[in-house]
């Protein structure tokens, strides 16, 4: 087992204040293979103080120089892609091809996008007799999840740095090694001391200390809606800005005229990707009654193409596996028809869950309302377009969705969906488009220019 020491604070690795550690488990083997320090309030305080001290200099750095440092960070991430991919596979369990293409590749694109954006972004404009200035919020506390351990760090840190903010990152305790590797890339990129700091620790200890710290001006959090509510309440009491990217129960709607096979395959692939551990997975698929059974049969065939341990990895932890299995059992108990997969483990070792497809799911069932965060997809019937819209919008979430159908009809339907991002006929992911949700899926947006504006204050000067 490899023991990793120290926290990345003020441009250097320094000993943790306490002696506690967090074990890092390989979810494919169930073996502990590393440990990191369990930081506490003292470590968070040191990191926030370093970020606060670095803020005046970094915020005054010209955008062109900030862009150069972001470009250097992009290059460092690119140089370490193989190591990033191997680390993500070890601590998250993602298959190597996915780790390299997505977990290691996407952060390079995102970091580079903000280096490019700074070349043209207007930090001030004239409005009548006023000059409107966009200024950095200050010190940002970034609390990141385990499902995309590097992408979610970069999606918060890169726009914050572009805006002129300084950052303290608290990564998920399940996947801390990727964040430590990110800190090494920060060093290699030559970012000034204190501009980016990384503190590993438990959410209810280090994360809470970061949320509560009076030296933090903004919290950017990605994770469950339940935790997001608590963070929002705490930040509201301190009148502290928040950006919350939370849960989802996204609907894929198959309209008449759609390519049914393509729609079903795309929906199932969405749920199986990253073992279903993605908040924008199309976990509810809505099909008109006269095409329903054909769609369910196609879904069972599609799910069979994702053998555990090959195209689909384990869930991140035993607790997450048990949670997903409990939802599968609840689906069966509430009367849904199991057409693929089920609660039985597909492999003797590892936190795997079999790709699971449910039919005869009704909108009021638990598996149609609550986020499962695993490779489980529910197929629901609808009678007409208005019925489909009612079902699609009928949850507390509104993160993402998809529509398949004749182009004009699909776009018209997508416009009426209560979701922050909707794919039409298999539209590809765009790392420059805003990502975020309606309703209890969150507050604010990530990526592209909209992600940058989350980290900016607006000031007007009247003449």
TrEMBL record:
Any coiled-coil regions, as ranges: none
Domain of life of the native organism: Bacteria
Family: Belongs to the aldehyde dehydrogenase family.
Protein name as annotated: Aldehyde dehydrogenase
Gene3D superfamilies: Aldehyde Dehydrogenase, Chain A, domain 1 (3.40.605.10), Aldehyde Dehydrogenase, Chain A, domain 2 (3.40.309.10)
Keywords attached to this entry: Oxidoreductase
Catalytic machinery residues: 245
GO molecular function: oxidoreductase activity, acting on the aldehyde or oxo group of donors, NAD or NADP as acceptor
A matching Pfam family: Aldedh
Domain Aldehyde dehydrogenase intervals: 13-460
Organism: Streptomyces roseolilacinus
